[in-house]
Write the structure tokens for this entry.
Amino acid sequence: MPGNSFGQLFRITTWGESHGPGIGVVVDGCPAGLPLSEKDIQVELDRRRTGQSKVTTTRKEPDQIRFLSGIFNGKTTGTPLAMMVENSDADSSKYELIKNLYRPGHADFTYDQKYGFRDYRGGGRSSARETVGRVAAGAVAKKLLARHKIKIFGFTRQIGEHIAQNFSQKEIEKNIVRCPDKKVAEQMIDAIMQARKEGDSLGGVIEVIAQGVPPGLGEPVFDRLDADLAKALMCLPAVKGVEVGIGFEAARLKGSECNDVFITKNKKITTETNNAGGILGGISNGNDIVVRMVVKPTSSINREQDTVTQKGKKAKIRVEGRHDPCVAPRAVPMAEAMVALVLIDHLLRNQTSQL
Amino acid sequence: MPGNSFGQLFRITTWGESHGPGIGVVVDGCPAGLPLSEKDIQVELDRRRTGQSKVTTTRKEPDQIRFLSGIFNGKTTGTPLAMMVENSDADSSKYELIKNLYRPGHADFTYDQKYGFRDYRGGGRSSARETVGRVAAGAVAKKLLARHKIKIFGFTRQIGEHIAQNFSQKEIEKNIVRCPDKKVAEQMIDAIMQARKEGDSLGGVIEVIAQGVPPGLGEPVFDRLDADLAKALMCLPAVKGVEVGIGFEAARLKGSECNDVFITKNKKITTETNNAGGILGGISNGNDIVVRMVVKPTSSINREQDTVTQKGKKAKIRVEGRHDPCVAPRAVPMAEAMVALVLIDHLLRNQTSQL
Amino acid sequence: MPGNSFGQLFRITTWGESHGPGIGVVVDGCPAGLPLSEKDIQVELDRRRTGQSKVTTTRKEPDQIRFLSGIFNGKTTGTPLAMMVENSDADSSKYELIKNLYRPGHADFTYDQKYGFRDYRGGGRSSARETVGRVAAGAVAKKLLARHKIKIFGFTRQIGEHIAQNFSQKEIEKNIVRCPDKKVAEQMIDAIMQARKEGDSLGGVIEVIAQGVPPGLGEPVFDRLDADLAKALMCLPAVKGVEVGIGFEAARLKGSECNDVFITKNKKITTETNNAGGILGGISNGNDIVVRMVVKPTSSINREQDTVTQKGKKAKIRVEGRHDPCVAPRAVPMAEAMVALVLIDHLLRNQTSQL
Amino acid sequence: MPGNSFGQLFRITTWGESHGPGIGVVVDGCPAGLPLSEKDIQVELDRRRTGQSKVTTTRKEPDQIRFLSGIFNGKTTGTPLAMMVENSDADSSKYELIKNLYRPGHADFTYDQKYGFRDYRGGGRSSARETVGRVAAGAVAKKLLARHKIKIFGFTRQIGEHIAQNFSQKEIEKNIVRCPDKKVAEQMIDAIMQARKEGDSLGGVIEVIAQGVPPGLGEPVFDRLDADLAKALMCLPAVKGVEVGIGFEAARLKGSECNDVFITKNKKITTETNNAGGILGGISNGNDIVVRMVVKPTSSINREQDTVTQKGKKAKIRVEGRHDPCVAPRAVPMAEAMVALVLIDHLLRNQTSQL
């Protein structure tokens, strides 16, 4: 199957390019009867929007969502929910200059190789703008999950050398880098502003936590919950790694240190620690789901770099479009959306596990 | 769809439990005309087999592969290739003792939660024995890839604190931990033997490299090559994290450090460095594909641990079955198989990208 | 998976309701490089449009297609092709009267049962208006097929008691019922006008022929070409039966009468007769593909019928909306579209059958 | 995706050739907790078995089912249920004679075209022997459906010119052609014996009825219940047409004759007549599901026919293997199995339609 759909029972299909008429998504499989308004979607789109703070790109897209189908009298009908955002502040002129050059770290070269040519305006389909559709669909997923008392939130754990040391959930949405550590947040902001000044960019680590996930979600042996989460996060732009729970730290531990011991708490079986990140054997165990992803520093930098032309000739390039100096802050709602999409899908799938 | 199939065009479905009649796989979508013998499969199964060295479990399974369908006159017919291995050395008696206890770090609890009960003999379906089918299918994938000059190999990069410092591809299969650094291999072996003596276990990191992959593989935006690789590795038992190329290191880098500059070499466009791990925008760029996964220390340890019974009562457990003190060495062929399955699938999928 | 997508490699997802903002389709998997304009689509939409002749409903929808993504410089990019038609002449007022009644032969009752409620305006999602998206996608498929010298055309074989006796391909699009027999076409038109006058409706049989289909298309054992064609036609509104080649007539024949004998013609192996309708063992044999479907008489009739309310109380109903007295003429382009979608999908799928 | 899997949530994958080691199926998605024994499967396999009466082929296959996985303590575990039947009475010698000839009406030519060569022994994968796996899986589906009070039965409605006039359900399994009309059954048997004597074969029509199906099953707009049933039946060997309810008769009717009027009966809304065959808008309406399929006369006939060699040279062929002179009687359990597979799949899918 082609690659623009995600999910099995709660299935989304995204479409649209950075500088085309618009960006959209079709959600198929949303159960009927969910009260849903455009406002429910807009609040999440506003969190991923460009131009929301000084650490993001200055491209200004209002990203106004419009329902095209699937809603009747304020409720989902069970038939496809189509949503769309018109593109407005697309400035393609700057791309004319670099349409024959391959931007280092970008998909220009690989799209050309795969499809024979590419829509070079703003990255076309490879633009992070495509995630508008995902975040919109994720907002629906979140609302469905909320009915099952499942809550999802994400935050920036690391930018460059700066790693959050303290955790205050309330702090997260109060600062523009979405870091749960107020003091480190300020360091992150400084580092980003400094990188922008130097025409450079920074990478970072995002963490997403899902609370209230019941045990039993995940379909071994391939559609394990962790495996689907890994795919969900890795298919976001700029992501180069994914971890669950203890993650890569597990390499250094002994079994006696890493195993989460089972205990009974409030008459429910749970684990004392959560190195597993809430998943055992690919199935949720009722503890918090904890996942992380790393985003590389933005490829588009306002510095001269070596590259080649489409014909392979040596050239210099400086990418002057409007770009985030660090994608981490805006990647938080994207990561949350992907986690929400995986969880709602597995929640639906798990309904048929037993007689 | 249920979770026991993997791949879109080269699609495998595995079946079987640790202590059932056998373990098998159906490969659907293998092109017709590939010369294939049981020996082609056996060589890979022997690499993942138990009892192959002192660092693996002592369970002795010959794991003799048998073709059940899909071959005629020594060639694949284009119809389903079914393969099976009979279980032979299954000793279920030890599991009677712990059938009402939840082993820390195991899927006992989550299978019970999901399905209402579980086949407790040897972990049932959650056993790593299930990967026999994957490795068998991966052997077919490798043979197909070889016709396209694509070669895959994996190795152990880290066990516990021991990290390979030097890289010699020839060394890998010469030592029992499959480490490309002879000296570190010895340290790893000592560490494993020591952990076994203490009734404990160790984690590790596996790396897989695919050479000769043409540019163009991967289906944005969801079935990106990196995303499918992430899922492929994360759905192996005990894996808690996955990286592509520079991986989590990307968080600390600046764009000017992380970007791989395009160059022309032997009249082909390539990149000077390979921080991307051979993938840009979810599509292969012609450079080596480089992926890593972390395996947690084996959950089954011969030490007393706290746990609870199925009814939630406090209990003690000591897991006395035969287990690998570190799964890394045997996980190498498993990881290779998963990478091979992803690559052949995307190679087939890419055939329809252009007119 | 949810039910609003069709096809494996050339995959369409339709969305939209009769009286919502619009109707659309996302085509995923269209190879890059196909020259495509909105005019290519419009010509097919105009053939399915309402109000095109006196035998169709008087609802007037211009059905102007708009590309939303997937085209760059006049060619498909290989990324999702999104298309949309705005709804304009939707008059929902008449539906207020019958929103609590179940129209005989309609999906009102079953949608209520399945989803708990329904969008009653114009049938909502169950309206034949949904096929706008299919016909638009089918136009793309036809253009791709034309590059492989595959041509598809359909016609009305039967309306009520009137069955085409002669076959002239040129005649088909010259008359408003799309019948290849000029004389019978007139009888059909008279019969439809008479039925409309009586507030009644008529059924019919549509036949579609695909010429130039190479041998080898179809994926046994489930995704046989005939099986996928059967599903493709049966999922059109009002269809109650599907046949391939000789169809139901086969029940009366002996093997010696039914078998198509192999011959060599122009150095190619073919069959003397075509009772098989171009398909053997679920795979195309190079002969014309011949399929038929029966459409029931339009359920909405301007006559009083017995029915019940949503609460199950006896009631009378007369459906006064604007409806086709016979859907056959407009079902011809719909059936062609579905056949085209199946063929392009299988053409792409067959590219990986052999090494 | 390759073509050897069927179903979305209750998904089967069949494997095996007529003269290979065996025939099998993997059922993925069967809910955990269903009591299931090999006897449950065997009873259905015995109904499709060869050699069960004088009107079937004399090939004698005991078709003894063996569970390979997915059962623990007599219940399904929720993990893949693998089942296998060994081939025993395969006599490949007769096929040597015709391996270079194309049997009229067979898949020999199309398999060669698709795959480059074929397993010519007994038709290989295109043999009706492949349906063993379907019938085995169908037996599981039937058992699950029975828990929901859904009952499925099929019968032979027509063989050659002989059409059942009376309907007695009890009669069906009492005669060897599975006809609900005792008198016509005898005529059918005589006709088959006569055809066999003449080295010829007969076609027929099978009808399947499902009782107790709740309203709401079916996923518009493509995975409509009728569309999936059409595919399910059309992918059986030798089937050339499929009908639901009134079927092709609908072409001759007026809307006022064809519409099933809604009534209330036992406090439930239902329809007075059942021309719709229990399906409206692609969704079950609670009435009996009624489907029919036509099977062509067996292609293998013991008479000299014209054909060509693989190289296209004229030749004569007489097919002397052991074949059913009419497949209708043995096709009854096959058709039932396919209907059962569709219904259980849609029953599971419908669980997520509403909040």
In short: Residues 236 and 259 of chain D are 30 Å apart (CA to CA). Chain D touches chain A through 18 residues (CB under 8 Å).
